[in-house]
Amino acid sequence: xxxxxxxxxxxxxxxxxxxxxxxxxxxxxxxxxxxxxxxxxxxxxxxxxxxxxxxxxxxxxxxxxxxxxxxxxxxxxxxxxxxxxxxxxxxxxxxxxxxxxxxxxxxxxxxxxxxxxxxxxxxxxxxxxxxxxxxxxxxxxxxxxxxxxxxxxxxxxxxxxxxxxxxxxxxxxxxxxxxxxxxxxxxxxxxxxxxxxxxxxxxxxxxxxxxxxxxxxxxxxxxxxxxxxxxxxxxxxxxxxxxxxxxxxxxxxxxxxxxxxxxxxxxxxxxxxxxxxxxxxxxxxxxxxxxxxxxxxxxxxxxxxxxxxxxxxxxxxxxxxxxxxxxxxxxxxxxxxxxxxxxxxxxxxxxxxxxxxxxxxxxxxxxxxxxxxxxxxxxxxxxxxxxxxxxxxxxxxxxxxxxxxxxxx
Length: 409
Hints:
Strand order of the largest sheet: 1-2-3-5-4-8-9-10-11
Largest sheet: 9 strands, mixed
Shape: globular
Oligomer: single chain
Number of helices: 14
Order of helices and strands: HHHEEEEHHEEEHEHEHHEHEHHHH
Number of strands: 11
Strand content: 5-15%
Structural class: alpha/beta
């Protein structure tokens, strides 16, 4: 029975109801020695507590897409077949342009939000460079199958979840396709192909989107194998000008790190409540040594870059949860690097989906501008009205001005 499936949810609901009724019906009807009756009553209470906790966990998990399956929850999943030393560029000396195209088999994805706005497809990808074998979810914009766009190549955004987190989270919890489909049809947002690869590759740890020889090549999986699969199977525009990566929490750290480290693969990155130092996630493999922390810290990578990368970064967060990380990047960035930082007041929410979900339209409008998919120039940002009289949604989405928010601190 699937961890996130409807049958399991209904089963936990039924068991919770039964566990509540049992003590009411049987408490005073117990027969036998006193010790036996006491033991039976204790077991009924424990059963009631266990089913209640299980139901709450299932509801929270389904709402936030923390664990995708039983293997993720129990820490038995391992999606790494091999982790060779691929060198500094993560290619292992492989001439990527010479790799033959591989056609993937896709099927309709199941789960909350996966059937909305035309539906999400899923494939099992064996990374030829990274050695990772995991699922990748793809959503095609409404224009993709229109006759007028039959020769058009579409820009791409990779979507990364936090840790723990499911690749389905952007479609389910953040409702990205439901929010963006009407905006794409109206022309406010470019028709992006959305790609969500698995990032939970090893049991019980966050890979930090890093390449660690002998352990995992998560960077190469996300920045080489997944993009190669997309361009092989869909009318995707070439990198880097037409590719971006977005994430929240640990996925936000990964998004910025990938863009800063690989400006030849990405033009823009979005960070929602992220951090720079990998130690921001205590279970990150990239935080296990000073060397790994330095190699995977986008602030240090940007500060030490001999040639400032041609990338645009969008950073949003509350004080102590993403905002300072964005300011630090803004302070060391040099042209042509651009950094747009959005301050979110505490009243906007916390480190959760309720804070990130309202930001989706604003983020993709910004991506549309900064990836040259509209008439606006590079470095452009959506207009920011004053905070005066702003609604909760405006504050949470970042459409209220940062200057006004700062005054309210």
